[in-house]
């Protein structure tokens, strides 16, 4: 059977993939004609072209995929004519091919409204990689960019202009609101407000009358006679199905475009199918990728004699527009006479959520989510599967508020035929069956079901289904480290402790399998450092350290490193400041004060690190361990030595603490601070452990952190004298180091700890486990073994050798490292 | 195939990598000491175009040797260069390695 496909976009590719998988090997001959110069690529993620992806990254499959599957692919060669009588097609490059079945997958082109001046230089459409390349080449000349069209594609195009560096970007919409087809007035207002806060200028109710300028665009003129100056214009006012060929061949088309198809995607000629955005089914063009894939599935099945039908497709969608969540599902606009709506609008957070509920209150019909679309997957499933709503349906949006309210059984409560991945049409039942068959990781599920491989929106639900199914099978889900060590970190910690293991190879020989990987190596290295405090680059353990530990510096954009000497408590003499200044000047480093009251020097070449540190160490500095999962800084306010409010000398205590725990390695970084009074200028309550002076002594707080989920530290013990305070910190830190999962900060660890702060207080303060003495002794031994790692490297020629970019050209710097000027200093060149 | 001398066996840390200069090119060389096998790839990580793979961490995934880039932990197969952690990411070029006594040679295509 010979199939010819016109067009090589995402849907065309998907059709090939599906029919190859279904047909017996060797029975198909497939020929594709594509207009564009490259094979099918991911148009959904087109804007990533401007945020670092290359055209090759976006390919659906490399060119070799087509040859491997015996597909003849003619690129840059559009079909010119279809001869239905002789069942042949004829191409631009004069190739004639016969067909048994012809698939038209020509997609759509940008709809360009007939505005005078659209032919001027600087006017673009946003559709193909070529369009993007033209925009990219033109953008450096432009400062103000304008997009006509405030729909989904228009906002995507606006994002592209922002990514191209046009900070002055405007969006023009003819309708009174953005995304008029997907969201309602209030949702649109919220979206507009959020986008404006992000720096986008939005003009609604604007009808563009003309594009002004000589050869090149200079401004837009609107029907109300107002004028907006512009250097660059992108038109994204909608799509137009590519139906010209079909029309020429006498196939029936809709009067507003689109090739008429039946439920099997056949056109008015039964041996010709149309799929994707060029097909018109039941008066509708489906402008999303998921229905296109479904059409590919139905057409492929029908050609092979299987009866499947395309009966329309849910157009629910969730996306991130310039960082703002926008989702619309089911019937977003259900009218007030047949349904009731629940609306939450939070102008503080900038969220708008609307759900439409059937008149009897039992079913969810659809809704709109702006600003926060976390609930989208569950709401969509509830709508599609007609799941009976809980008594307080608003709980679906804001969660239960105490009492015994039910919100349903979560994703495990869905029926088996619930569609989880709509791009690849994978049901809940298929995913659960795959898990039961032993595919227990996300990677396995992606491989065997394809769920989650397209837009990725269903991945959180797939993960929940994996763990839910495993739990239902009675499997104990243990946090094992990776395929090489089937132990939790705490178990491995105890084993390494008992067997006194001091190298990664020994650990692997005794308790692991295989060769290790980037997950288990740093975990074992960190455990050994927490237990023995040996020099981390010795005993063959150098290559199992996380990259930053291996080079005792933080790798930065471009491949250079930063240098952070320890400045305990943030106290530094003018002499030492001079040394830092001299080093910065000599090695041409960018200098910045850090949040932890020290000085960061950026842009050091790998081969310069030992020389830089040699100078710093000679001046009395030590490593600051900014590169390690280790104690970072103990920040302090100036305290009673100068401050008129200070109760105690917070700087001296901070220095004492920082010098005690310097170099201490842990499951994650540790930060601390000491404040000299309740005004809390050192922000101690945002640290892993923080100390605040009181009239009677020190209050010790634990488990705080800043970061993406800020959390205040909790009071562990009050009014302590300095020595008791340090004993408690010893116990707290050792207990954390021994029991936490990898890469878990103290805040998360404490949140998960059974019994929480009460239990921790019992262990640390009341010694309920009888291990306080042991914890203190273990900490003391680590403290006694401390040595500055950089001092050891500087003094050891063998270790110094490791700090070279080229093994066969010692001292030579990486010639690809580039810097750009920034104010009076420099910065790393941007990612490509 | 041109075989060029890269360095001595002992110049490469056990179970780690180094970067070898070959004209204007940079090649990452890896030594799996536990299995006494060697691999070489381009030093450039395709994800953010950084010259960094030689400073990454070696390991295996279901027996397949791999390298993890130090920047964002993208992992690449050392046998065929494909990206293991992200199917949509480009692969990397691999080169054959030959050991003669304590000398390491890397094979590159002529021209």
From TrEMBL, chain A:
Cofactor: [4Fe-4S] cluster; FAD; siroheme; [2Fe-2S] cluster
Pfam families, per database record: Fer2_BFD, NIR_SIR, NIR_SIR_ferr, Pyr_redox_2, Rubredoxin_C
Molecular function GO terms recorded: 2 iron, 2 sulfur cluster binding; 4 iron, 4 sulfur cluster binding; flavin adenine dinucleotide binding; heme binding; metal ion binding; NADP binding; nitrite reductase (NADH) activity
Record domain Nitrite/sulphite reductase 4Fe-4S: where: 628-753
Presence of keyword Kinase: no
FAD/NAD(P)-binding domain boundaries: 1-299
Cofactor note: Binds 1 [4Fe-4S] cluster per subunit.
Protein name, entry field: Nitrite reductase large subunit
Native organism: Chitinophaga oryziterrae
Gene: nirB
């Amino acid at each position: 059977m010979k199939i010819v496909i016109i067009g090589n976009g995402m849907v065309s590719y998907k059709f090939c993939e599906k029919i190859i998988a279904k047909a017996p090997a060797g029975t198909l001959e497939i020929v594709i004609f594509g207009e564009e110069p490259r094979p099918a690529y991911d148009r959904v993620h087109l804007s990533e072209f401007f945020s670092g992806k290359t055209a090759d990254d976006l390919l659906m499959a490399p060119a070799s995929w087509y040859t491997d599957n015996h597909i003849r692919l003619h690129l840059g060669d559009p079909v010119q004519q279809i001869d239905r009588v002789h069942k042949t097609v004829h191409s631009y490059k004069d190739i004639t091919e016969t067909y048994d079945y012809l698939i038209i997958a020509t997609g759509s082109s940008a709809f360009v409204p007939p505005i005078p001046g659209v032919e001027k230089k600087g006017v673009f459409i946003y559709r193909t990689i070529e369009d993007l390349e033209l925009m990219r080449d033109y953008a450096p000349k432009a400062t103000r960019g304008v997009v006509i069209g405030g729909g989904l594609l228009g906002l995507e195009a606006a994002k592209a202009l922002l990514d191209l560096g046009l900070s002055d970007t405007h969006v023009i919409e003819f309708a009174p609101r953005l995304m008029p087809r997907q969201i309602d007035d209030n949702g649109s207002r919220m979206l507009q407000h959020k986008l404006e806060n992000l720096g986008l200028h939005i003009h609604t109710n604007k009808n563009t009358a003309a594009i002004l300028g000589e050869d090149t665009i200079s401004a837009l003129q609107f029907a109300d006679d107002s004028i907006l100056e512009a250097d660059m214009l992108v038109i994204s006012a909608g799509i137009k199905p590519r139906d010209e060929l079909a029309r020429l061949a006498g196939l029936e088309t809709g009067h507003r475009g689109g090739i008429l198809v039946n439920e099997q995607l056949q056109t008015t000629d039964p041996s010709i199918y149309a799929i994707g955005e060029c097909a018109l089914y039941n008066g509708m063009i489906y402008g999303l990728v998921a229905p296109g894939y479904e059409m590919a599935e139905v057409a492929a099945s029908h050609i092979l004699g299987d009866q499947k039908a395309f009966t329309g497709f849910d157009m629910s969608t969730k996306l991130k527009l310039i960082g703002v969540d926008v989702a619309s599902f089911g019937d977003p606009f259900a009218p007030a006479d047949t349904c009731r709506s629940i609306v939450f609008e939070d102008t503080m957070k900038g969220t708008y959520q609307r759900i439409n509920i059937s008149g009897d209150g039992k079913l969810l019909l659809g809704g709109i989510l702006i600003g926060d679309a976390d609930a989208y997957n569950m709401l969509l499933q509830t709508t599609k599967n007609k799941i009976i709503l809980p008594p307080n349906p608003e709980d679906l949006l804001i969660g239960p508020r105490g009492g015994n309210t039910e919100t349903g059984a979560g994703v495990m409560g869905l029926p088996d035929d619930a569609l989880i991945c709509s791009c690849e049409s994978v049901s809940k039942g298929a995913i659960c069956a795959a898990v039961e068959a032993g595919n227990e990781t996300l990677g396995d599920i992606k491989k065997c079901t394809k769920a989650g491989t397209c837009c990725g929106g269903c991945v959180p639900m797939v993960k929940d289904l994996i763990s839910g199914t495993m739990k239902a099978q009675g499997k104990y889900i243990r946090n094992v480290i990776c395929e090489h060590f089937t132990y939790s970190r705490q178990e491995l910690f105890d084993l390494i402790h008992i067997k006194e293991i001091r190298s990664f190879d020994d650990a692997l020989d005794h308790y692991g399998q295989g060769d290790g990987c980037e997950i288990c190596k740093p975990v074992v290295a960190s455990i050994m450092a927490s237990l023995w405090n040996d020099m981390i680059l010795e005993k063959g353990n150098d290559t199992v350290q996380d990259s930053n530990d291996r080079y005792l510096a933080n790798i930065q954009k471009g491949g250079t490193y930063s240098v952070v000497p320890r400045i305990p408590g943030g106290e530094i003499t003018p002499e030492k400041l001079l040394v830092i200044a001299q080093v910065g000047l000599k090695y041409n480093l960018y200098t910045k004060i850090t949040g932890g009251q020290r000085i960061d020097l950026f842009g050091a070449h790998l081969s310069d690190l030992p020389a830089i540190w040699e100078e710093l160490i000679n001046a009395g500095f030590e490593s600051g361990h900014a590169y390690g999962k280790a104690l970072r800084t103990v920040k302090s306010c100036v305290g009673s030595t100068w401050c008129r409010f200070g109760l105690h000398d917070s700087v001296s205590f901070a220095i004492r603490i920082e010098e005690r725990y310097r170099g201490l390695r842990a499951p994650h970084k540790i930060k601390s601070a000491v404040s000299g009074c309740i005004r809390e200028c050192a922000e101690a309550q945002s640290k892993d452990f923080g100390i605040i002076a009181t009239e009677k002594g020190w209050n010790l707080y634990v488990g705080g952190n800043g970061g993406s989920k800020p959390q205040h530290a909790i009071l562990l013990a009050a009014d302590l004298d300095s020595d008791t305070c340090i004993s408690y910190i010893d116990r707290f830190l050792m207990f954390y180091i021994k029991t936490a999962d990898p890469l878990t900060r103290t805040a998360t660890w404490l949140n998960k700890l059974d019994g929480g702060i009460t239990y921790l207080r019992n262990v640390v303060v009341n010694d309920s486990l009888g291990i306080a003495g042991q914890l203190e002794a273990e900490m003391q031994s680590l403290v006694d073994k401390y040595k500055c790692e950089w001092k050891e490297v500087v003094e050891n020629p063998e270790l110094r050798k490791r700090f070279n970019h080229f093994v066969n050209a010692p001292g030579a710097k990486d010639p690809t490292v580039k810097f750009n000027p920034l104010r009076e200093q420099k910065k790393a060149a941007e990612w490509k | 195939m041109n075989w060029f001398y890269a360095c001595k066996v002992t110049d490469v840390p056990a179970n780690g990598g180094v970067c070898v200069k070959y004209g204007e090119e940079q090649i990452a060389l890896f030594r799996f000491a536990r299995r006494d096998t060697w691999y070489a790839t381009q030093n450039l990580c395709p994800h953010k175009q950084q010259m960094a793979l030689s400073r990454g961490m070696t390991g295996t995934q279901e027996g397949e040797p791999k390298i993890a880039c130090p920047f964002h932990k993208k992992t690449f197969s050392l046998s065929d260069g494909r990206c293991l952690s992200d199917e949509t990411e480009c692969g990397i070029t691999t080169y054959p390695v030959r050991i003669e006594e304590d000398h390491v040679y890397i094979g590159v295509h002529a021209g």
